[in-house]
Design goal:
The chain has 174 residues and is an alpha+beta fold. It contains three helices and seven strands, in the order βββββααββα. Strands 1-5-4-3-2-6-7 form a seven-stranded antiparallel beta sheet.
């Protein structure tokens, strides 16, 4: 189920449909690189019953106004929004998709996942984008950057992430 979506963070108005998500409004302007999470854990991600479940950020590439970057936040209640200043509401995930995401995040062997190191050339080297995922787990925030970890986008976890986020943010997944 590998998706081939290009660096469409520059074209934030193109939102593909997804059966597991409801679009509340059209997206605002593309975030700037300053709103992309740092290389460390996100201070907003926590394993609490409320708050952030996970974030997906794209960074790098080249847009008209400088580097491209967008961060989408999925909260534990299913709310989806940009990390940028309001208006940033994008919609809400279906309860079924939210349950799938929670189950996949809980079932993931994070040590195994990060043991597959990325050995290629990071797409940011040629105006492409890196994808950075941060998942709030019982063991803390799990930081997965596509230029550090060889991400298996066909795995159940990343298939669910792509379904959830794909309705709101095109992912540069090859």
């Amino acid at each position: 189920m590998a998706l081939a979506l290009s660096s469409a963070a520059c074209a934030a108005n193109a939102i593909p449909a997804s059966p597991g998500a409801t679009n509340a409004s059209s997206p605002g302007p593309t975030d700037t690189a300053s709103q992309v999470p740092s290389d460390g854990p996100s201070p907003t991600a926590s394993p609490d019953a409320t708050g952030v479940l996970f974030t997906v950020a794209t960074r790098g590439g080249h847009c008209r106004d400088g580097p491209c970057g967008t961060t989408v936040v999925i909260d534990r209640d299913g709310r989806v929004h940009y990390a940028a200043k309001p208006p940033n509401e994008l919609g809400t995930l279906s309860p079924e998709l939210l349950a799938t995401l929670n189950a996949e995040i809980a079932a993931t062997d994070w040590t195994e996942l990060v043991s597959h190191r990325f050995n290629g050339e990071c797409p940011t080297a040629y105006d492409g984008q890196e994808i950075v995922f941060e998942f709030a787990t019982a063991d803390g925030v799990q930081h997965i950057a596509s230029c550090e970890v060889e991400v298996d986008y066909d795995s159940a976890l990343f298939a669910a992430v792509a379904e959830a986020v794909g309705a709101f943010m095109p992912l540069p997944i090859e």
